[in-house]
Design brief:
This protein is an alpha/beta fold. The chain folds into 3 domains: 43 residues, 434 Repressor (Amino-terminal Domain) (Orthogonal Bundle); 130 residues, Rossmann fold; 129 residues, Response regulator (Rossmann fold, 3-Layer(aba) Sandwich), CATH 3.40.50.2300. The chain contains 13 helices and 12 strands. Helix 8 links the parallel strand 3 and strand 4. The protein is elongated and about 90 Å long.
Amino acid sequence: MNPRVTILDVAARAGVSISSVSAALNGRPGVSEDTRRRIVDVAEQLGWVPSLRGRSLSGQKAYAVGLVLERSSEVIESDPFFAGFIAGVESVLERQGFALVLQVASNREAAVQRYRQLALDHRVDGVLLTDLSQHDARVRLVNELGLPAVAVNAAQRCAVAAVRQDHRPGLVELMDEVIALGHRRIAHVAGRRGLLHTRQRVEVWRSALQKAGLEPGPLVYGDFTVESGSRAADDLRAAAGDTPTAVVCANDLMAIGFIARVSALGIDVPLEMSVTGFDGIPLGAFVRPALTSVATAPRLLGDAAASMLLAVIQGETPSDVTVPATRLLRRDSLVDVPRA
């Protein structure tokens, strides 16, 4: 592996001082145009590439963006949604020579403090905000600090630029199909309380049932983990009333945990109970039964969010962006209501 070319190498080959090389390569005054051109030519011949730290020290930018994930380590470890989102972000940042500063927080208060510290330490030029709540303290924080930010799946009229994928179309399509298959007692395993997308999915579930003239079935809350899906199965079995014939889960991991638990309890999925997920993760195609879900586009969201954030960092005021909406992903875990 060839050693990295530094400005010391460029200065030695060009026969000038290090300060002259620094001025020439960073577009600062202090060298003649002939000398600048000669230094740039030498740098290109040697294959010199500016280091991220060097660019940060020579200018006013950190050449980095921040993302604090407010999820448990278990979710981040097992949920491909985040890998897809981060891959989309990195595909943009890499092309522009930016780095991603990724941190994890256990709760909202910790996330706010981490974003504040990233800004105060000048470690990032802007930040991405995910898992928005209705009145999100992080949005207020970045506006107070004047820190460029892009929110992912924020509410309309959010106080920062936003990238969205409409969760509703795919979920409405799913609920319509569940009802069309004859299910009348339909439960929902929701995500973490307080999150905007948790509330949106509960509203779609409830409104679809009301539109069909059905009473909402049991509603239990989880935290997007496989374990919380398993606990939800026990909670629903303990709930008053008839056992649901269909259970709509707010993400695929909870649906997988739910299926594993009810199967262990002797309930056949889907012959006795249909179960659906949300996100459309690849793993869902390989569990048994293959998981009916709602397909999202985390990589597209990450790509669009990173592109928009870099524009905001450059002083632009881009319009909000919407990526293609969610869609129903038909597999094997949703079938006709069981016949008595």
